[in-house]
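Standup notes
- HV: blocked on the assembly model, inputs below
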Amino acid sequence: MEWRFCLTRRKRLDLSSALARGEFVPYFQPLVDLRTGELRGCEVLARWVHPTRGIVLPDDFIPYAEESGIIAALSECVLSKAFEACATLNQTFVLSVNISPIQFRDPILSKRLSELSTRHRFPLDRVKVEITESTLLTNLADAQSISTQLKLLGVKLSLDDFGTGYSSLAHLQALPFDEIKIDRSFVSSMCCRRESMKIVAAVIGLGRSLGLTTVAEGIEESAQADMLRCLGCEVGQGWFYGRPVPIEELQAMLALSRPS
Ligand code: C2E
Ligand code: CA
Ligand code: CA
Ligand code: CA
């Protein structure tokens, strides 16, 4: 118990000083129109550029940042860099940002996003907030009021990891979502498991009938992209289209794809 406490305290100190040193940065992963191949947006994924450990992935620090209460500050640091960089790109794609359950309970979330938007001149109608269902379990009424505030500012709302949570359908009905993201677990098995394919097809149909954009995540092979396209899925994301990259690489990619 004591050892665990020490470890947690140590982690907390590590995270706080990393935050102070600005070691958290945004990486960007493309979201692509499955029919035309055009860039529709980018998901912002946090990375810790550690002085000795190299690039640390979110699963290794987001849970501790949530636990120790610095998630909002960390997120603000990452989003600030992302907005700043993308405001100058001369592009119109949407930035999808991951918001933790704790942040989605914070009544000033919309104020924080507005401030960042103003500071970096990155319009909020180019921002999409991704939340998972765990966000909605504790207090649906708060989530509804925060969603309404965000929507009034022009922010779009996406239900992430769709199909893995609890009572997904009730949540789709309760909140003003614009998009559902089909979880990677279904996409990765859809070409070899008939059940997965049927579930993906049903989710795409559901999204369509509710007027929502359907996004498939974790596309690693062309066969998956082909099947999703045939099933009517609009947007895709995954290593097949591009891994998460730092801003310099995103800029280089965009420069290459721009017609001369
Ligand atoms: P997520 O939101 O479901 O993000 C998708 C994850 O799948 C990312 O992992 C991404 O790198 C990975 N991925 C994308 N395409 C593929 C693929 O084709 N194959 C495979 N195997 N993986 C793929 P990552 O970057 O490690 O992030 C993990 C999770 O950490 C995210 O899952 C998200 O829940 C959370 N996260 C990341 N950045 C932030 C942040 O700034 N704030 C918060 N609150 N959470 C974040
Ligand atoms: Ca996400
Ligand atoms: Ca996801
Ligand atoms: Ca996930």
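- HV (later): unblocked. Residues 43, 98, 130, 160 surround calcium ion (ligand 2) (CB under 6 Å). The chain has a mean pLDDT of 93.
- Next: hand off to the docking folks.
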